[in-house]
Amino acid sequence: MTPLRPRARRTQRRSGKRSRTAAALLLTAGASFGLLLAAPAPATAGSNLVVNPGLESLRASDAMPTCWEKAGWGDNDFTVTTTDQSHGGGKALALSVTRRVSGDRKVLMAEDSSCAPSVTPSHQYDLSLWYKSTTPDASVTVFRHDVKAGWQYWTDLKTLPVSAGYTRATVRTPVVPPGTDQITWGVSVYGTGTVTTDDYDMEDATQPAAGAVCTAGDACVKGSWAVMPFKNPVRSMHSVVLHNGKVLLVAGSGNDPAMFKAGTFTSAVYDPKTGAMKTIPTPVDMFCAGHVQLSDGRVLIMSGNKAYPAADGSHGYEGFKDSYIFDPSSESYVKTNDMNEGHWYPSATLLGNGDVISFGGLKEDSTGSVTAEKFSQAQQKWLPRTEVNQTWSYWGLYPSMILMQDGRLFYSGSHVFGNGTPGTGASVYDYDANKITDVPGLQDKDNRDQSMSVLLPPAQDQRVLTMGGGQVNTNPEASRLTDLIDLKAPNPRYTPGPLLPQGTVDQGQGPKPETGAQGKMYVSAVLMPDGKVLETGGGLHDRADPVFEASMFNPATNTFQPGLATDPIPRTYHSSAFLLPDGRVMAVGDNPGNGTFDDHVSIYTPPYLYKGARPQITSVANNRWQYASTQRMTVDRPVVKAELIRPAAVTHSSDPNQRFVDLPMTVGADGTTIDLNVTSNPNLAPPGWYMLFAVDADGVPSVASWVHLGGPDALEAPKGAEVKGAEVKGAEVKGAEVKDKAAPMVHDFAGKMTEKAKAPEPAHTSHPVPVTISGCDRHYGAENVCVPTAFPKTVPPTTAGRCAWLKAHDYGVLKLNGRDDPLKLDPDRNGRACD
């Protein structure tokens, strides 16, 4: 028997335990595969790059086809045999898994320089094979050879439906990443059953860029910003893109104590198609709440502001228990049951089963919450504390909790206010095991306040980028640091990324170029349809000193394209930037420490929209998609990729649910009829509404079409379908009881972490939090005015120096709250600072 290659240990782990039954029938439309479509013929007819594609040449040592090998991992029993049950010629390969507790088994092209097909970076390839299968738990899997790092898993391209007779499966690879010289591919089986394959084909399907000439000047490479002629009618701190294409802007009191005292709480709905803004009655102060889109497209909003800090320092901000759902169809709020306690600044992460999990924030008494909360998709309510696993950990404020492909949560280290969590500042939380394992490598982890973390495109790559940040309590200059982590690694750790590009900064004396290590906090990062990440906005210090800079991060090269056009409006504290369905980016908000709020709305048109005509999605056969299904769209001209992008729900540089999910394509002979292969794993693409984009070879995206993925019906356990006359004979099956859909394909990544997992802390009620956690000295001014507890280091620690800084930043005259004057801003003792 051929020994298993090292990649056998770098493969799949499937979550959950589901019974396996034999299968014998090609499932028809209406079954849980969604719309089953006949695979169109490939769009190209080039030379076949596969060595021994018909499996006819055999090795004498083990009777395996030349240039083919077995791989896999886990606790299972399997056989790989050469059979005469072929599609063409006289040989085929049959892979059978007869018992499975965990893992998978594969047949793939050998990881050998003379066997693995050579590829060209930036090209795409059409892969096809003929197969028959008795299990829905099978997929086409690809590995790639990196010239520096060697062989590694790349991606899963297509779930193979059950088929009693030979059928052809065809799929196009994503663009080959830089540094890749060869790939291997084949079939993975991660459930019990048999898959027989034959007649493999691989052809270069690269679509050349049109090379359209751009006549827009600098906008061709920098894009352009436009400040809208209308104003934001509310002091919005929260931005949520709705599945009807509109944008929900939530203010609550808008960090305005007068509005709070008057009980005047506001939201607005913006329609990008018409430019209309509609103010929405808002029941409670949702200022600094948490929010996330539920699987049906409604918006769950949790907690908010129960009280502003007291002038005498007796309490800080307070959260409340209330929770609401915003319904886009009625544009109104409906109350849910209460959470177990208050959470001002909570996290909100949608899980693969549609539940929402939330951590952190401040309780009703201003202390830190150590209670994890879970909103049940099935019950449509917050669960009692006793029904939610508790580690009694204080995760801080707006901790960035990103769902991993195996259902665990990655805390990236991005947060708001105060230091990072104890330990390394980043960790993996296994909810089912209720254990936390630290992840090393995050640079300067206690100065990453209001950094931003994103799961890079595509979500299948499981890589996270963390950018910038500062520290409101010590108030250093914000950081240029970025960090990258590959959650596919056996023992993932952050590694330093490229430094953030520098722009100009206005510290009260006009814009000047940044120097040295100057970077920014309040970073906004937006996943773009071309697979890049726009970073924009930010400030050099706590609620001050806006930085005018924007760049585009390319995940394929791990580099920034600096020098993009910059938003002319300052975007620091309480700002948001987010993707619109038409491929542009909208930015709102700026709430500096002097208590003002900028109501200008900016729109960024990226360079890709200056490259000529856009491709159009002319039809989507079905806008209700199931996992592990094939869905058809048509376009008006050839495109090179398609993806789902989850609409934004962003506040305070935090949107842990933002994700870009690749849709491997099967392209018809006309080049415009395209079948899209949907992941079987809800953890990669949690259920809900997504923007579907198609992108051409120039990187120009279509306008998005809205599709709904999954939902309660798509998350049920597989059902059996009885078929009369079941008979199993070798690799052939005639009639059986079948599972009617594939199980989620989950990989065995991050399975050998060297840090010791931490068990839950002893149960306790809260974590102590100082009233100055927000970096504001409450001895001066109103509740929404933030006089820094620590001025920037360049400010002389004198009355004159501090007052000059406050004047340059438009604070005006500030009243003294009480008798104490710790910063010595009222030397004449008249009750007014810096008058």
TrEMBL record:
InterPro entries: Gal_Oxase/kelch_b-propeller, Gal_Oxidase_central_sf, Glyoxal_oxidase_N, GO-like_E_set, Ig-like_fold, Ig_E-set. Residues 266-594 form the Glyoxal oxidase N-terminal domain. The keyword Nucleotidyltransferase does not apply. Gene3D superfamilies: Galactose oxidase/kelch, beta-propeller, Galactose-binding domain-like, Immunoglobulins. The keyword Signal applies. Residues 1-38 form the signal peptide. Residues 1-20, 495-514 are annotated as: Disordered. Residues 614-708 form the Galactose oxidase-like Early set domain. CDD domains: E_set_GO_C (cd02851). Keywords: Signal. Pfam families: Glyoxal_oxid_N, GO-like_E_set. This is Galactose oxidase-like domain-containing protein. It comes from Streptomyces abikoensis. The lineage of its organism: Bacteria, Bacillati, Actinomycetota, Actinomycetes, Kitasatosporales.
